[in-house]
Amino acid sequence: MFAWGFSIGAPLKEERAVRLKIRPEYTTNYLFILSFKYGSGWSGSYPRFTVYLHLMAEDLSIVQGDKVAQYQSIIPQIKALIDGEPDLVANLANTVAALKEQFNWFWIGFYLVKGDELVLGPFQGPVACTRIKKGRGVCGASWAQSVTLIVPDVEKFPGHIACSSLSRSEIVLPIIRQGEVIGVLDVDSEHLSHFDETDQQYLEEIISGLNFEE
Questions:
Q1: Which residues pair with 154 in a beta bridge?
Q2: Distance (Å, whole) CA 134 – CA 139
Q3: Pick from 91, 27, 90, 84: which is nearest to 59 by CA?
Q4: Is 203 in contact with 119 (CB distance < 8 Å)?
Q5: pTM, 2 dp
Q6: pLDDT of 47-95, one tens digit each?
Q7: Which residues are CB-contacts of 68 (< 8 A; sequence separation ≥ 6)?
Q8: What span, in angstroms and rounded, lies between the C-alpha atoms of 171 and 108?
Q9: What is the DSSP string of 20-32?
Q10: Nearest Cα to 185, choosing from 95, 110, 121, 102?
């Protein structure tokens, strides 16, 4: 959320128009709210008041085109959604929501390391496995190996955990901070061979921009 504030001294009995110049790129996907708050000071015999303009995200701009163009469009929007927000759960939730809306993947979500397990975090899609042991399935293997795993056909992955029979391919990216894996980002598709190095590149960029220190 952004805000601009300024004070205007004006008689309360008069209606006054306030003109604000807003940058064009803010006018498409944001909701503008004007709120008025009385100040404690006085200007002559009239109270002073402040006009605040709040910039709030309302809708994402969803684009068509190739995979690169879609990532290059959605990543700045994700950064805008999480900028200035200190709550980790809120930021993880908005991140997966934005990616799900743009790409319409079957499932996307975070698992966070708690003890010797990955525990389900914010996600978009059908209900999922709640806990995954280290080394088990694609998520557990990515954690154990500290590497991104791209699986063209999940049925051919040894030890695959079938949270849903509709999932056909998968990419799992470890979240590494100070040399330790603290979680993974898991993305599933209903289509075979859906993910590649382009997804890896841009999803790793998104992960690197997330602050996991609360």
A1: none
A2: 8
A3: 27
A4: no
A5: 0.74
A6: 444 333 333 445 799 999 999 999 999 999 999 999 999 999 999 999 9
A7: 198, 202
A8: 10
A9: ----GGGSSSEEE
A10: 110
Q: Which amino acid is at 14?
A: E
Residue type, 186: D
Distance CA 107, CA 116 (A): 24
Rounded to whole angstroms, how far apart are CA atoms 131 and 111?
8
- Written as six digits, the tokens of 27 are 């006018």
Question: 197-208 vs 67-82: helix axis angle to the nearest 10?
Answer: 10
Calpha distance 74→191 (Å, rounded): 22
List, in order, residues 6 or more apart from 32 with CB less than 8 Å away.
22, 53, 54, 55
In this prediction, residues 154-162 reach a mean pLDDT of 89
Q: How many residues does the chain have?
A: 214
Contact yes or no for 77/204 (Cβ under 8 A): no
CA atoms within 13 A on the CB side of 82: 25
CB 163 within 8 A of CB 128: yes
CB 89 within 8 Å of CB 158: no
DSSP H or E stretch at residue 38: strand 30-43
Encoding tokens for residue 25?
Answer: 């790129």
Q: What is the CA radius of gyration of the chain?
A: 23
